[in-house]
Protein backbone atom coordinates (compact mmCIF):
# COMPACT_ATOMS: atom_id res chain seq x y z
CA UNK A 1 0.00 0.00 0.00
CA UNK A 2 2.82 2.43 0.88
CA UNK A 3 4.56 1.67 -2.42
CA UNK A 4 1.39 2.40 -4.39
CA UNK A 5 0.91 5.63 -2.44
CA UNK A 6 4.46 6.74 -3.21
CA UNK A 7 4.16 6.02 -6.94
CA UNK A 8 0.90 7.92 -7.17
CA UNK A 9 2.37 10.80 -5.16
CA UNK A 10 4.98 11.58 -7.81
CA UNK A 11 2.28 12.68 -10.26
CA UNK A 12 -0.39 13.83 -7.86
CA UNK A 13 0.36 17.52 -7.30
CA UNK A 14 -1.17 18.73 -10.58
CA UNK A 15 -4.31 16.70 -9.92
CA UNK A 16 -4.55 18.18 -6.45
CA UNK A 17 -4.20 21.72 -7.76
CA UNK A 18 -6.94 21.14 -10.33
CA UNK A 19 -9.25 19.34 -7.91
CA UNK A 20 -8.81 21.93 -5.17
CA UNK A 21 -8.75 24.83 -7.64
CA UNK A 22 -5.64 26.31 -6.08
CA UNK A 23 -4.26 29.10 -8.22
CA UNK A 24 -0.51 28.81 -8.56
CA UNK A 25 0.53 31.94 -10.43
CA UNK A 26 3.89 33.18 -9.27
CA UNK A 27 4.96 29.97 -7.54
CA UNK A 28 8.44 30.39 -9.05
CA UNK A 29 8.78 33.65 -7.11
CA UNK A 30 8.84 31.78 -3.80
CA UNK A 31 10.27 28.40 -4.84
CA UNK A 32 13.24 28.08 -7.19
CA UNK A 33 15.89 25.42 -7.76
CA UNK A 34 19.30 24.91 -9.33
CA UNK A 35 22.14 22.42 -9.50
CA UNK A 36 24.82 23.09 -6.90
CA UNK A 37 28.56 23.52 -7.29
CA UNK A 38 31.07 21.44 -5.31
CA UNK A 39 32.43 24.32 -3.27
CA UNK A 40 33.06 23.87 0.46
CA UNK A 41 32.33 27.54 1.14
CA UNK A 42 29.72 28.73 3.64
CA UNK A 43 26.69 26.42 3.29
CA UNK A 44 24.39 29.46 3.50
CA UNK A 45 25.63 30.83 0.16
CA UNK A 46 23.64 30.03 -3.01
CA UNK A 47 26.31 27.67 -4.42
CA UNK A 48 25.39 28.15 -8.07
CA UNK A 49 27.37 26.39 -10.77
CA UNK A 50 29.26 28.50 -13.29
CA UNK A 51 27.39 29.02 -15.55
CA UNK A 52 24.25 28.85 -13.43
CA UNK A 53 22.02 25.82 -14.07
CA UNK A 54 18.45 26.41 -12.93
CA UNK A 55 15.84 23.68 -13.07
CA UNK A 56 12.06 23.88 -13.32
CA UNK A 57 9.47 23.05 -10.72
CA UNK A 58 8.28 20.36 -13.13
CA UNK A 59 11.68 18.70 -12.67
CA UNK A 60 11.15 18.77 -8.92
CA UNK A 61 7.74 17.16 -9.34
CA UNK A 62 9.39 14.37 -11.36
CA UNK A 63 11.50 13.65 -8.29
CA UNK A 64 8.36 13.42 -6.16
CA UNK A 65 8.52 16.90 -4.63
CA UNK A 66 5.16 18.63 -4.27
CA UNK A 67 4.99 22.42 -4.05
CA UNK A 68 2.49 25.22 -3.67
CA UNK A 69 2.40 28.97 -3.19
CA UNK A 70 0.06 29.96 -0.37
CA UNK A 71 -0.95 33.10 1.52
CA UNK A 72 1.49 33.14 4.43
CA UNK A 73 -0.04 36.31 5.87
CA UNK A 74 -3.36 34.51 6.30
CA UNK A 75 -2.25 30.97 7.11
CA UNK A 76 -4.62 30.60 10.07
CA UNK A 77 -7.66 31.10 7.82
CA UNK A 78 -6.29 30.06 4.41
CA UNK A 79 -8.82 27.85 2.62
CA UNK A 80 -6.16 26.54 0.23
CA UNK A 81 -4.02 25.31 3.09
CA UNK A 82 -7.09 23.72 4.62
CA UNK A 83 -7.83 21.90 1.36
CA UNK A 84 -4.28 20.58 1.12
CA UNK A 85 -4.34 19.36 4.71
CA UNK A 86 -7.67 17.61 4.22
CA UNK A 87 -6.66 16.04 0.90
CA UNK A 88 -3.35 14.72 2.21
CA UNK A 89 -4.33 13.94 5.78
CA UNK A 90 -2.01 16.43 7.48
CA UNK A 91 -3.62 16.33 10.91
CA UNK A 92 -0.62 17.57 12.91
CA UNK A 93 0.82 21.08 12.65
CA UNK A 94 3.28 23.19 14.59
CA UNK A 95 5.39 26.28 13.92
CA UNK A 96 9.08 26.72 14.61
CA UNK A 97 11.49 29.63 14.33
CA UNK A 98 14.98 28.72 13.14
CA UNK A 99 17.44 31.46 14.01
CA UNK A 100 20.26 31.95 16.53
CA UNK A 101 18.06 33.95 18.89
CA UNK A 102 15.07 31.60 19.08
CA UNK A 103 16.22 28.02 18.48
CA UNK A 104 17.76 26.27 21.52
CA UNK A 105 21.09 24.58 20.76
CA UNK A 106 21.11 26.45 17.46
CA UNK A 107 24.61 25.52 16.26
CA UNK A 108 24.15 21.82 16.97
CA UNK A 109 20.73 21.68 15.34
CA UNK A 110 21.86 23.55 12.23
CA UNK A 111 24.74 21.09 11.92
CA UNK A 112 22.33 18.16 12.24
CA UNK A 113 19.89 19.67 9.73
CA UNK A 114 22.73 19.84 7.17
CA UNK A 115 23.70 16.19 7.55
CA UNK A 116 22.44 14.28 4.52
CA UNK A 117 19.57 12.09 5.67
CA UNK A 118 16.18 10.66 4.82
CA UNK A 119 12.92 10.08 6.66
CA UNK A 120 10.49 7.19 6.48
CA UNK A 121 7.64 9.70 6.11
CA UNK A 122 7.18 12.88 4.10
CA UNK A 123 8.88 16.09 5.19
CA UNK A 124 6.36 18.93 4.85
CA UNK A 125 7.45 22.53 5.34
CA UNK A 126 5.58 25.79 4.76
CA UNK A 127 7.62 29.00 4.95
CA UNK A 128 5.66 31.66 6.84
CA UNK A 129 8.53 34.14 7.13
CA UNK A 130 12.16 34.29 6.08
CA UNK A 131 13.78 31.78 3.73
CA UNK A 132 15.99 28.72 3.55
CA UNK A 133 17.50 26.02 1.34
CA UNK A 134 16.40 22.41 1.02
CA UNK A 135 19.08 20.39 -0.80
CA UNK A 136 17.88 17.18 -2.48
CA UNK A 137 19.48 14.45 -4.57
CA UNK A 138 18.29 13.86 -8.13
CA UNK A 139 18.12 10.44 -9.78
CA UNK A 140 21.83 10.71 -10.68
CA UNK A 141 22.79 11.57 -7.09
CA UNK A 142 23.52 15.21 -7.96
CA UNK A 143 22.66 17.95 -5.47
CA UNK A 144 19.79 20.29 -6.28
CA UNK A 145 19.32 23.36 -4.08
CA UNK A 146 15.67 24.31 -3.55
CA UNK A 147 15.25 27.87 -2.29
CA UNK A 148 12.01 28.46 -0.39
CA UNK A 149 10.77 31.92 0.55
CA UNK A 150 7.72 33.26 2.39
CA UNK A 151 4.59 31.62 0.98
CA UNK A 152 6.34 28.54 -0.40
CA UNK A 153 5.25 25.09 0.74
CA UNK A 154 7.06 21.91 -0.25
CA UNK A 155 6.69 18.21 0.46
CA UNK A 156 9.75 15.97 0.23
CA UNK A 157 8.84 12.31 -0.31
CA UNK A 158 9.74 9.58 2.14
CA UNK A 159 13.03 7.94 1.22
CA UNK A 160 14.58 10.98 -0.50
CA UNK A 161 18.04 12.01 0.69
CA UNK A 162 18.11 15.68 1.61
CA UNK A 163 19.40 18.32 4.02
CA UNK A 164 18.46 21.83 5.15
CA UNK A 165 20.27 25.08 5.83
CA UNK A 166 19.38 28.69 6.36
CA UNK A 167 20.58 31.24 3.83
CA UNK A 168 22.62 34.31 4.77
CA UNK A 169 19.55 35.99 6.31
CA UNK A 170 19.73 33.39 9.10
CA UNK A 171 15.99 33.13 9.67
CA UNK A 172 13.01 31.04 8.73
CA UNK A 173 9.65 30.65 10.40
CA UNK A 174 8.25 27.36 9.18
CA UNK A 175 5.08 25.38 9.64
CA UNK A 176 5.70 21.66 10.02
CA UNK A 177 2.91 19.27 9.06
CA UNK A 178 2.52 15.55 9.53
CA UNK A 179 0.07 12.70 9.09
CA UNK A 180 -0.85 11.58 12.60
CA UNK A 181 1.65 11.81 15.44
CA UNK A 182 4.91 13.37 14.21
CA UNK A 183 8.05 11.28 13.82
CA UNK A 184 11.10 13.44 13.12
CA UNK A 185 13.71 10.64 13.11
CA UNK A 186 16.50 11.34 10.58
CA UNK A 187 18.41 8.42 9.06
CA UNK A 188 21.80 9.74 8.00
CA UNK A 189 23.23 8.40 4.78
CA UNK A 190 23.76 5.56 4.09
CA UNK A 191 20.42 3.96 4.92
CA UNK A 192 19.66 2.46 1.52
CA UNK A 193 18.32 -0.72 3.12
CA UNK A 194 15.25 1.01 4.56
CA UNK A 195 11.95 0.11 2.83
CA UNK A 196 11.14 3.81 2.35
CA UNK A 197 14.35 4.28 0.35
CA UNK A 198 13.77 1.21 -1.79
CA UNK A 199 10.17 2.22 -2.46
CA UNK A 200 11.21 5.75 -3.44
CA UNK A 201 13.84 4.50 -5.92
CA UNK A 202 11.39 1.95 -7.30
CA UNK A 203 8.80 4.67 -7.86
CA UNK A 204 11.34 6.83 -9.72
CA UNK A 205 12.47 3.97 -11.95
CA UNK A 206 8.90 3.01 -12.82
CA UNK A 207 8.07 6.60 -13.67
CA UNK A 208 11.12 6.87 -15.93
CA UNK A 209 10.19 3.61 -17.64
CA UNK A 210 6.68 4.89 -18.36
CA UNK A 211 8.03 8.17 -19.76
CA UNK A 212 10.50 6.30 -21.99
CA UNK A 213 7.69 4.33 -23.69
From TrEMBL:
Listed under GO biological process in this entry are: L-methionine salvage from methylthioadenosine
Which catalysed reactions does the entry list for this protein?
Answer: 1,2-dihydroxy-5-(methylsulfanyl)pent-1-en-3-one + O2 = 3-(methylsulfanyl)propanoate + CO + formate + 2 H(+); 1,2-dihydroxy-5-(methylsulfanyl)pent-1-en-3-one + O2 = 4-methylsulfanyl-2-oxobutanoate + formate + 2 H(+)
Q: Which cofactor does it need?
A: Fe(2+); Ni(2+)
Record-listed Fe(2+) binding positions? 117, 119, 123, 162
Q: Does the keyword Amino-acid biosynthesis apply?
A: yes
> Its pathway?
Amino-acid biosynthesis; L-methionine biosynthesis via salvage pathway; L-methionine from S-methyl-5-thio-alpha-D-ribose 1-phosphate: step 5/6
Q: For this UniProt entry, which residues form the secretion signal? A: none
The EC number(s) this enzyme carries: 1.13.11.54, 1.13.11.53
Source organism, top-level taxon: Eukaryota
Q: How does it sit in the membrane?
A: Peripheral membrane protein
- In which compartments does the protein localize? Cell membrane; Cytoplasm; Nucleus
Q: Which UniProt keywords apply?
A: Amino-acid biosynthesis, Cytoplasm, Dioxygenase, Iron, Metal-binding, Methionine biosynthesis, Nickel, Nucleus, Oxidoreductase
- Which parts of the sequence bind Ni(2+)? 117, 119, 123, 162
Task: Give the Gene Ontology MF terms in alphabetical order.
Answer: acireductone dioxygenase (Ni2+-requiring) activity; acireductone dioxygenase [iron(II)-requiring] activity; iron ion binding; nickel cation binding
| HAMAP family reported for this sequence | Salvage_MtnD_euk
Hey, which family's this protein in? Belongs to the acireductone dioxygenase (ARD) family.
Q: What does this protein do?
A: Catalyzes 2 different reactions between oxygen and the acireductone 1,2-dihydroxy-3-keto-5-methylthiopentene (DHK-MTPene) depending upon the metal bound in the active site. Fe-containing acireductone dioxygenase (Fe-ARD) produces formate and 2-keto-4-methylthiobutyrate (KMTB), the alpha-ketoacid precursor of methionine in the methionine recycle pathway. Ni-containing acireductone dioxygenase (Ni-ARD) produces methylthiopropionate, carbon monoxide and formate, and does not lie on the methionine recycle pathway.
Question: What protein name applies here?
Answer: Acireductone dioxygenase
Amino acid sequence: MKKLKLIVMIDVYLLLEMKMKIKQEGKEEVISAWYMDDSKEDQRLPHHKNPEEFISLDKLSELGILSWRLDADNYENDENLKKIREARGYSYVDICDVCPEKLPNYELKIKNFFEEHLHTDEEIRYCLEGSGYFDVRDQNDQWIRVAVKKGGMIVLPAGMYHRFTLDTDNYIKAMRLFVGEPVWTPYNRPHDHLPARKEYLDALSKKQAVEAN
